[in-house]
Amino acid sequence: MAIPIFRASVSSCRPFFDASQSQKISPFKRSRLLSCTSAELNPLQSRSELSICVGTHLIPHPNKVDRGGEDAFFVSGYHGGVIAVADGVSGWAEQNVDPSLFSRELMANTSYLVGDEEVNYDPQILIQKAHAATSSIGSATIIVALLERNGTLKTASVGDCGLRIIREGRIIYSSSPQEHYFDCPYQISSEVVTQTYLDADVSSVEMMEGDIIVMGTDGLFDNVFDHEIVSTTARFSGVADAAKALAKLAHDHSKDSSFDSPYSIEARDKGFDVPLWKKILGMKLTGGKLDDVTVIVGQVVSSPNITVL
Ligand SMILES: [Mn+2]
Question: Which top class of enzyme applies to this chain (predicted)?
Answer without folding.
Answer: hydrolase
